[in-house]
Amino acid sequence: MELTKNITLGVYLPGETVIHRLDPRTKIIIASVLIILLLMIKSYPAYAVILTFLSAVIFMSGIPLSYALCGLKPMLPVLILMWVFQLFLYSNPDSKVIFSFWIFTATDSGMHMGNLISLRVIFLFTVTTILTLTTSMVSLTDGLESLLNPLRKFGLPIQELVMTMVIALRFVLILAEELDKIVKAQMARGVAFDRGNFIQKTKKLFPVFLPLFINAFKRAEELIVAMEARSYTGGKGRTKMKTLQMSRVDLGAGFVMLIFSAIVVLLIITIKPQI
Amino acid sequence: MNLSVRKIVISGILGAISILLGVTRLGFIPVPTPAGHATIMHIPVILGGVIEGPVVGLITGAIFGLFSFLQPGAPFFADPLVSILPRLFIGIVSYLVYYSTRKINLVLACILAGAFGSITNTVLVLGMATIRGYLPSEVSLSIGILHGVPELIVAALLTVILVRGIQRIRPVEENS
Prior knowledge:
The complex is a heterodimer of chains A (275) and B (176). In chain A, 66% of the residues lie in helices and 3% in strands. With 275 residues, chain A is mainly alpha-helical. Chain B is mainly alpha-helical. Helices cover 72% and strands 6% of the residues of chain B. Chain B has a two-stranded antiparallel sheet with strand order 1-2. In chain B, helix 1 runs antiparallel to helix 2 (43-52) and helix 2 packs antiparallel against helix 3. The longest helix of chain B is centred in the last third of the chain and has 33 residues, at 137-169. The interface between A and B is large, with 69 and 62 residues.
């Protein structure tokens, strides 16, 4: 059992395209606006506009389409199941019946509901995938820090919170190695992790979890001493080795995004929702 | 508000464990239901609340939520209102339960904190998924029972064992 062989954390595809060169802050803002818009959309034409926009972005970023969508594959069964649940179980008073057998009745409002939530989930997923494929984790956290920096004025410890994220990302790989050792050590003692029913399998997790957490906390104590010995005091007066800089491309992207969101908002307001 | 180095580091490392349980799929208990797996990825969040207090519980929950938003295991986790928002409360609820019951009995307090932390996760996530229209209420209810109960039992047991284990290795002055 190889647990830690293929850990992928934010699969970043390096590239030199316009999308890659955008400032991480611009990308985070655009992605957030898209997510907010997607949460409000309730009609097909608006989704069509979003589809055009996302296709253009995928084309410009040079990500192979199969790559951008491969993360959806494992979710497909659950997605179809969700669609079927909506088809048969969702109904409102003025919906027409499409067909019915035994106790199940499929209505058109159920079908629209299923379509709309499936589209929403697929598009939300595509937005986060494009963001993580074209932006490395390091620049994502950098961008997040500089975007949230104004909140320091309200007393929120932004730099410290970003530090937590950085520690978490760094420690995933260290702890993965540790986990691998623990699992192998337990297997050498004769624990068969892949056998037994679900209660037996769950029981076998206990001798893995305890050493994992204890070791993690020991490492935490060491890191605390190390950071305190170097007088870590958080964000006050800290400067950066690499500072982020907006360019003309970011200005253009912001402009395009502004027009695009205006169109979508107009569509959301004017078109009657399907459900 | 000021975050001590201890709070920063412990939140970071608990967040790392939560992410690790997700990427290695070790945090999933194979329960045979249509929705897939029961999860124990929220146990680091419960521990953060019980051992270090509400702030660490909140931050660890945010990391857990952010991760399940960026690498969703089920379709509806692509919606940040389902994946991030409910997770912020797990650590806070565990902390409140632990601190209001620890005078009675420490073991009982850990069991209750684990159980209520787990219930918070199940109820708020499925509730939000229902409100946002991803799941009909009948389906949420059955998933809640089928997944929620094993999650609750495992979470309660693991919380007791882990809290007792970790408190043994922590520096003495922190236990007071």
